Amino acid sequence: MNNHKGKLIGKDLLGLGLLFLFLILFLFSEQISTSNQIEAIPNAWMNVNTIFLSIVIEAIPFILLGVFISALIQMYVSEETIQRFLPKNAIAALVPAALLGAIIPLCECAIVPVVRRLIKKGMPLHVGVVFLVAAPILNPVVFASTYFAFRNNPTILYSRMGLAFVLSIMIGAILYSIFRKQPHQLRRTANLSLASHHVHIDGAMDHQSTKPTVGTRVRDTLYHAVDEFFMMGKYLILGAFIAALFQTFLDRSLLETIGSNEYSSTLVMMVFAYLLSLCSEADAFVASSFGNQFTDSSLVAFLVYGPMLDLKNTFMLFAFFKARFVIAFMITVTFVVFFSVLILFGLIL
User: Fold this and answer.
1) Position 349 in a domain
2) What is the dihedral of CA 325, 328, 333, 335, to 10 degrees?
3) Which residue range is the domain that position 230 belongs to?
4) Nearest to 162, CA basis, from 240, 102, 222, 204
5) How far apart are CA 110 and CA 105, in angstroms?
6) Helix orientation angle between 296-308 and 154-179, rounded to the nearest 10 degrees
């Protein structure tokens, strides 16, 4: 047990060390680039450092938002509450989950810890899946950013929002049919951190004695948030680093050449969305920059697929869900988005 705990702490320290190293390189990049003694660092790797930090810095506020919401759910939302408000019928529960995603401003960086916590609290797996893919797109912040990025082409905006709502329900229904007999797909992760240790002890003492005070609840909420932040953070760092490598070394001119075809351009932009790992609040402005090279269908595919599935949240999904579920989720999202976009724009059927 102590060895396992030591390994977990070691991984956290390694992740923080890497982040600190990249931050130092970012802050002193100008001095490094002009120094004759450190000419060995190629410009491409300095670019990797810059892109990596931009992804991490952009994502961290939303990760913080997600872990705090997750902690509040842990402290204040009971299993009985979730069961009471969810429709008993499995299919009927899909629509409320999509509607819930439309009112909560969470991007794909923050949604994984929230959905994980809701499922641990008793939310059915397929309902959690709907919320997982709907919330990063349907929320008001993303609506506004997409509107301003495509003011001259409202088709993109309405296609993105309409598809996200319909496809989230479809994806939830498909995964329900696959895992209805195996609904428990969360990994058994041991909470071995000191924060969790304190929370569990204090929580047990509170239940045995008196009702928790406001101060105790605030403290326990902070413990949970810190615990989840460090747990999610190392996967964010790994995903952001790999995404930075792809953004630096991927030949974009080759992708643009392939993207001249209606069908291949849709697939190419989905690959782009996955590898670039942009935050859903900002991806519309990146997509609009491709407007002259790519078709409307491929831009919609980029805007729908990326928030549902990208490189950095793939690492988080594999960390907290069983591999069979994550693979089924990835395949389902990819096929559903690709063919739905083609159908919407009349490219097939």
Assistant:
1) no
2) 180
3) 2-344
4) 102
5) 10
6) 40
